[in-house]
Amino acid sequence: MNIIITNSSGLPIFEQIENAIKEAIFSDELKEGEMLPSVRSLANELKISFLTVKRAYDELEKAGFIKTVQGKGSYVLPKNLDLIKEEKLKEIQEHIEKIYEISKLSNISKDEVNEMFKMIFEEEL
Amino acid sequence: MNIIITNSSGLPIFEQIENAIKEAIFSDELKEGEMLPSVRSLANELKISFLTVKRAYDELEKAGFIKTVQGKGSYVLPKNLDLIKEEKLKEIQEHIEKIYEISKLSNISKDEVNEMFKMIFEEEL
DNA sequence: TCATCTGTTATATCTGAATTATAACACTTT
DNA sequence: AAAGTGTTATAATTCAGATATAACAGATGA
Known about the structure:
The structure is a homodimer. Chain A is mainly α.
């Protein structure tokens, strides 16, 4: 597990763990069926409480990324592409909403934003 | 003052006040030299503590939007639009770049992003 | 000058979220 | 049985945000 916890990120620890594991799943660093570290071992490794790790795992399970079995541990569920796309679309939506807030606050026109959008996305051609 | 405080916004009250006033300044609803409501009167109006309003005003002063004078009150400073806009455009650009990265990695088409963009920006009617 | 607006400061408290420590319990595997 | 898993309950801590209250200080107009 390649999880780095920052106090300056603004995100609570359990969310940082969540995100790191999601990233690992997206990038196939963690594959379907693979076991995650036990809550206690990861807690020891990160020098945090196992309850915090458990919270992260609970959220990941609720979101459909992993499955936890008492006495055994947690393992990665088959990637649900739709689910992943949902996640990514939600991330994008949050960015757009922030852009919307900024533009509204700063009197920046929709057209100006659209122009930047085109500029950056045209780059790939 | 047209400030609406929501408990569901996720933002602390003092930030909601900050944003509302920034928005009013950008939209010229509040003009240069104009007095803001006193900390106590706005606090009464919003049914919150004057300390919370003071915090919002303090942040606005630190950010260069208003000036507060003891015994008198707070008034709107001259807008430095170019500088502010430059900063805001840079913030927006960073968001768009993140969107670009996400969409590229997740195989989300430019059109899909564009659709979300329209959805969110059309909301304002 | 006095009353009454303004903002300022200090102290203490409350609340909720995040996090922790600890202990006891339950399931699985060897 | 032992040693690993996860689970649950309880209590405590920390921190940010927000509050209440009181006392202080500057501005202003009657």
